[in-house]
Recover the amino acids of this structure.
């Protein structure tokens, strides 16, 4: 005998509609709203971008965390990720490399960079490649400052990305997926739906089909990256998006890709585009 | 019978002789015969031990409670909710069907998120456990033939009626 299972979510939703009830809380993000420092309003829920057909509403990972973890992100004094931002602010001003330049000597105050994080990864016409913020930072260091490139997920690099995220908080994510970026976007989408490893699980299995549900002790979110870099209580440091991708693929008992690889750059572009419309909220706090 | 099942069935004849040595009397992962998603014969040639199966529900590569709740297992904290609650599962499925589901759930439920526990081929970027590194040499199934039998024997105790 064969029996087909309707996926739990649509079944529950269908029953709820028939009965005129709200969908039970167990399988859903909470109702909290996020305002940082009593000032910066963060969009944590909005209509999914047109290119997404698997889901209709997108949510920030913040909506899936417990109240204590959520609270830490609501005030910069309680957000340990802001220590990395403060460290990067000093580096921003400091001259480094043979050209005698600092980030500030070209770009002015870091707040001048508001909006930049929201559109990365982004096609770079001159280089003919899709660039993540990390790649752009290293390009500035090497070609403009005559300084050494930082390791892709090194502490200094992740702090600098956190600084650029922090000045863009509240700006809607808006990465371009058409034009010359399209082939990378397609490649990232392919990776998102590929079932890797001995457990044969794709990003979509967990973050599109099962978000809101518990997998062992973890409350699955949509795996959005609008909150990166993320300060994780689990490893007590700021984490880059590629480190998270690596961890999730490792957990499927697969051979991962390397941070900074073409595969993860493409995946970052694709995952970022799934969050188009959510606010930039890094550095976020997660468990 | 689907082509894939036919190939699997044919492979039994070829592979069972070759694998008899390395796997004792066990049926090799590549040689399991499915009929409508079910597997009739014990994979190990031995009966399963429900007490051992109970432990595998929580531990190591079994970790069934990551996705399933089982009222009979209150000692295992944090049971997941991705798959159906397994209470009364032996009323819903026969032993052969449960063996088929644990061996390779994707034959009974196409596209299921449930891992295939007795499978060694066809993986994309197979890893070496949870190291993130590539698997070296032959991939071992997530559960051995006897462990599958133990888990099935435990599932057979989950009766409401």
């Amino acid at each position: 005998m064969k029996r087909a299972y309707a996926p739990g979510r649509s079944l529950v939703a269908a029953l709820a509609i028939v009965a005129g009830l709200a969908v039970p809380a167990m399988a859903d993000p909470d109702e909290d709203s996020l305002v940082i420092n009593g000032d910066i309003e963060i969009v944590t829920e909005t209509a999914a971008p047109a290119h997404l057909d698997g889901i209709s509403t997108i949510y920030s990972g913040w909506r899936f965390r417990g109240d204590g973890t959520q609270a830490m992100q609501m005030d910069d004094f309680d957000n340990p990720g802001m220590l990395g931002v403060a460290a990067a602010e000093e580096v921003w001003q400091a001259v480094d490399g043979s050209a005698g330049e600092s980030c500030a000597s070209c770009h002015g105050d870091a707040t001048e960079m508001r909006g930049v994080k929201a559109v990365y990864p982004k096609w770079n016409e001159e280089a003919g490649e899709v660039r993540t913020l990390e790649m752009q930072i290293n390009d500035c260091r090497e070609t403009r400052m005559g300084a050494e490139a930082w390791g892709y997920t090194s502490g200094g690099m992740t702090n600098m990305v956190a600084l650029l995220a922090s000045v863009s908080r509240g700006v809607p994510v808006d990465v371009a997926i058409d034009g010359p970026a399209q082939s990378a976007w397609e490649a990232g989408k392919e990776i998102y739906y590929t079932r890797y490893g001995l457990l044969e699980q794709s990003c979509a299995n967990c973050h599109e089909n099962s978000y809101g549900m518990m997998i062992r002790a973890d409350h699955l979110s949509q795996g959005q990256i609008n909150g990166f870099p993320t300060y994780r209580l689990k490893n007590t440091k700021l984490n880059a998006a590629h480190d998270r991708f690596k961890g999730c693929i490792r957990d499927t008992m697969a051979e991962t890709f390397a941070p900074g690889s073409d595969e993860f750059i493409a995946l970052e572009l694709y995952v970022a585009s799934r969050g188009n419309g959510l606010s930039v909220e890094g550095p976020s706090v997660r468990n | 019978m689907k082509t894939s099942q036919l190939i699997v069935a044919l492979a039994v004849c070829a592979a069972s002789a070759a694998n008899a040595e390395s796997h004792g009397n066990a049926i090799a992962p590549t040689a399991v015969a499915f009929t409508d998603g079910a597997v009739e014969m014990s994979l190990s040639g031995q009966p399963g031990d429900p007490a051992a199966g109970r432990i595998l529900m929580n531990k190591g590569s079994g970790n069934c409670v990551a996705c399933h709740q089982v009222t009979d297992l209150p000692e295992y904290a944090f049971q997941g909710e991705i798959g159906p609650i397994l209470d009364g599962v032996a009323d819903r499925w026969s032993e052969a069907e449960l063996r088929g589901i644990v061996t390779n759930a994707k034959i009974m439920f196409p596209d299921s998120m449930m891992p295939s526990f007795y499978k060694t081929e066809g993986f994309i970027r197979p890893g070496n456990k949870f190291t993130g590194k590539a698997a070296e040499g032959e991939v071992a199934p997530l559960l051995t033939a006897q462990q599958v039998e133990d888990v099935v024997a435990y599932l057979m105790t989950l009766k409401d009626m």
Chain B touches chain A at residues 36-37, 63, 65-67, 77-82, 84, 92-93, 97, 108-109, 113, 115-116, 123-135, 139, 142 (CB under 8 Å).
